[in-house]
Design a protein that fits this description.
Layout: E1 11-18, E2 26-33, H1 42-48, E3 56-59, E4 63-64, E5 67-72, E6 86-91, E7 95-100, H2 101-110, E8 113-114, E9 118-119, E10 122-128, E11 131-136, H3 140-151, E12 166-169, E13 174-186, E14 194-204, E15 222-225, E16 231-236, H4 243-252, E17 261-266, E18 278-283, E19 289-295, E20 300-310, E21 313-317, H5 323-328, E22 338-341, H6 344-353, E23 358-364, E24 375-376
Parallel strand pairs: 21-24
Antiparallel strand pairs: 1-2, 1-3, 4-10, 5-6, 6-7, 8-9, 10-11, 12-13, 12-16, 13-14, 14-15, 17-23, 18-19, 18-23, 19-20, 20-21, 20-22
Length: about 375
């Protein structure tokens, strides 16, 4: 569950169908009306419930008297009919519904369950994205989620926007407005893997956790929006004292200024370990750069050949593999491209015998900041 950012709606919609093993003989499907008056998950709700049984609407207010019933699901007969494990809970308004085991464990961290009397304390219905959560009101997450929910009805208009001001968005994050700029986006359909799109740029006051393990995602530092509908309020009317510095940092960053040339960098880790399917460059005695690709599964190594760098392009040079390499590596042909088995041992020796000769490449913009993809001037791009 994503605590502290759960939605607590004002109105519940409850549909029913008959089910054995419940206190009332009925199992409920609980959904809600959102802040815009839309019935959320209505299609699946209508498809699940028995239309012969009248549905109900309830105010979503703190309520006590919930009782645990039984565990359901969790029985694996085959890979296709497995049902996740849930726990049934009786609502004092006369129906039963299901919560996840994770939700139950969270409840028991804050509340006692007394046999015959049920769960102690007041509870309210909340939604963690699309998932229902029975939330105890005596938890810090109840207060945080109440604040989060209140933000969803607030708004900021265009006339409220001033560069350098700090705003609160509907995710409860503080963001500094840097203005409307061209933003580089990864796309394999445009401009060799990167395209530009004009968007409103915000800088997180507190950096977020990086959501992209490959490191490109700007979501750790910046928040890009096409409009202002996801802003909740003005946090400060004053211009942030760090605005000029943050503005310039964005202008110079890879998220705004695209690369214009390639540079080679020494590997940060000069150990004998090389990542699989990774491009490396070996600098020979004449200063030429040879492009290698490691393929450790199957102990394969590829020598793509010598490369020539021109601006933001690399071009293969149709040059034969050096004679000493051919003798020591099991090449079947002396060409500028070879992918032959059993070359791993010698290649690893060559790359680790003198780490100062081994480089990785990166696109760099005019401010010296590393950017994203580089592409060879061939039919096959390498990322």
């Amino acid at each position: 569950m994503t605590m502290q950012k759960m939605n607590i709606p004002k109105t519940l919609r409850v549909g029913y169908r008959e089910r054995e093993g419940t206190y009332t003989g009925r199992l409920a499907y609980v959904t809600y009306i959102d802040e815009k008056g839309k019935h959320r998950k209505q299609k699946s709700w209508d498809g699940w419930r028995d239309h012969k049984i009248a549905d109900d609407s309830f105010d979503n207010e703190p309520t006590e008297g919930f009782v645990l019933n039984k565990k359901v699901g969790g029985y694996r007969y085959s890979s296709w009919d497995q049902r996740a494990t849930y726990c049934r809970v009786y609502d004092p308004r006369g129906f039963e519904f299901e919560i996840t085991v994770e939700n139950l464990l969270y409840i028991l961290d804050y509340c006692s369950s007394i046999q015959g009397k049920g769960l102690e304390g007041e509870f309210i219905y909340a939604w963690d994205k699309a998932d229902l959560v029975l939330l105890p009101v005596n938890t810090p997450d109840y207060k945080a989620s109440t604040e989060f929910t209140s933000l969803q009805t607030k708004k900021v208009t265009r006339k409220d926007m001033v560069e350098g001001r700090v705003y609160l968005n509907k995710n409860n994050d503080l963001v500094m407005y840097l203005g409307r700029h061209e933003v580089t986006e990864k796309s394999y359909k445009f401009n060799n893997g990167v395209r530009k799109k004009v968007q409103h740029v915000f800088k997180y006051i507190v950096e977020k956790e990086d959501e992209n393990k490959y490191g490109y995602s700007p979501s750790r530092y910046y928040w890009f929006q096409s409009g202002f509908t996801k802003l909740a309020s003005i946090h400060s009317e004053d211009i942030d004292p760090d605005f000029a510095n943050e503005y310039q940092k964005f202008i110079e960053s890879k998220y705004h200024t695209m690369a214009d040339h390639i540079e080679f960098f020494r590997r940060e880790n000069e150990s004998k370990y090389f990542s699989s399917r990774t491009s490396y460059f070996y600098k020979d005695d004449d200063g030429n750069m040879w492009h290698f690709e490691t393929k450790f599964y199957g102990n394969l190594c590829t020598v793509h050949g010598m490369v020539r760098v021109t601006g933001d392009r690399m071009t293969y040079v149709n040059s034969p593999i050096p004679k000493e390499w051919v003798e020591k590596m099991n090449y079947e042909k002396n060409t500028y491209y070879a992918n032959v088995p059993d070359n791993y041992t010698y290649l690893k020796h060559m790359l680790t015998s003198d780490p100062s000769r081994v480089f990785v490449s990166s696109l760099v913009n005019k401010f010296g900041n590393k950017c994203e993809n580089y592409y060879f001037d061939t039919n096959n791009p390498y990322v």
